[in-house]
Amino acid sequence: MKKPQKIILFLLATLNFTHILDFMVMMPLGVFLMPFFKISPLQFSFIVSAYTISAGVSGFLAAFFVDNFDRKKILLSAYILFLIGTIACGVAPTFYLLLFARVFAGIFGGLIGAQVTSIVADTFSYETRGRAMGVVMSGFAVASTLGMPFALFLANKFSWHAPFLFVGVLGCILVPFIIRFLPKMDSHISQEKQSFAQKVTILTSVLSNKKQFNALIFTFLMMGGHFLMIPFINPYMIHNVGYTKDFTPLIYLFGGIASFISSNILGKIADKHGKLKVYSWCLLSAIPMIILITNLPFATKTYITLSIFALWFAVSAGRGVTGVAMVSNVVDASNRGSFQSFNSSMQQLGTGLAAFVAGLIITENAQTKAVVGYDIVGYLSVFVLLCSLFLARKIFKSS
């Protein structure tokens, strides 16, 4: 891998760290936000899904123009506006203002993921893309390993506002480096810019192309199946299982370390032995852990619980790396930005709908604050993920 490529990967991984941390940190903050605003689990799921659904809508609309512009300019503009929304979350005094700030951040956050994926796909060949995706997606692992525990420490030490302000400040520090070191990414632009009508044709082409359409459904199922159980891990571990607030950051610390290691190792293995094979193995390995996590009867020894979560994070990261790499190969470079915007929309909509559905299923015991129905969410997660596996084996037979 050449030095300019390494710099690009480092910048994108760092940007992904702040972007993903902003999204992730909202979920464990439920134990702070629900009593602070006096809201129900369903209202909390509104805050989580507001970001992802608005991101999905904006990503879909962006597909009609992003391929006419330099990917760097789109990425930088979206990232700056996303940071403004994140800082607004950090100073929001009411539930409704926080909800509005999450929508604002989501609108521009929805543009980021597609551009990151498109830049990686433009820069690296399919044969090395698994490794490159692993490096960029390690931003998720670092966000879990370092970002989440520190963000939860800030929330415990100061208030729930602090994690968002931390992400906003960190992102502002990163912006000058993106301007300086990320090169122009405009080789995909044709001499004649495509009109809106032509872009609509691309959408209809995607919808009529069985493989591309199925790839979008696959993304929706992959993300939805994973994020069904994520928003209520913290309340369940504290109010049902019996762990303290000081324990839950360790889940993300050890899980993040496992994700960081596995995303890079499994990315390389997938390039060598087949992405579909690694995806299938990771998904099937996750099922017993999902059932166990959502049915923990009481607090066991710390190292046992952390080991379970670490293994689950590790195989989930491997599933994500291989899934994204397989989907990136169903479209050519000239329309990749548009397709990845559609695909990013499906990621966000899958995540947002998952959070919303989990909020509909889960209720809270008024006296003990225990979460009711988390086991059902776990079984639903397994079902959706198995559907994604069935579709993957149908679409990506040669991957």
Structure overview:
It is built from 15 helices and 2 strands. The longest helix has 32 residues. A two-stranded antiparallel ribbon has the order 1-2. The mean pLDDT is 84. The radius of gyration is 20 Å and the shape is globular. It is mainly α and 399 residues long. β1 and β2 form a beta hairpin. The two termini are 22 Å apart.
Topology summary:
Blueprint: H1 3-25, H2 30-37, H3 41-62, H4 71-91, H5 95-123, H6 126-157, H7 161-181, H8 196-208, H9 210-227, H10 233-241, H11 248-273, H12 275-293, H13 302-327, H14 336-361, E1 363-364, E2 371-372, H15 374-395
Antiparallel strand pairs: 1-2
Helix pairs in contact: 1-5, 1-6, 1-7, 3-5, 3-14, 4-5, 4-7, 5-6, 5-14, 6-7, 6-11, 6-13, 9-13, 9-14, 9-15, 11-12, 11-13, 12-13, 12-15
- First-to-last CA distance: 22 Å
Q: What Rg, in angstroms, do the CA atoms define?
A: 20 Å
The secondary structure category is mainly alpha
Report the sheet with the most strands, covering strand number, pairing sense and barrel closure: 2 strands, antiparallel
The global form is globular
Order of helices and strands: HHHHHHHHHHHHHHEEH
- Spatial order of the strands forming the largest sheet: 1-2
Find the count of extended strands (DSSP E, 2+ residues): 2
Q: Give the amount of beta strand, in percent.
A: under 5%
**Overall mean confidence score, pLDDT:** 84
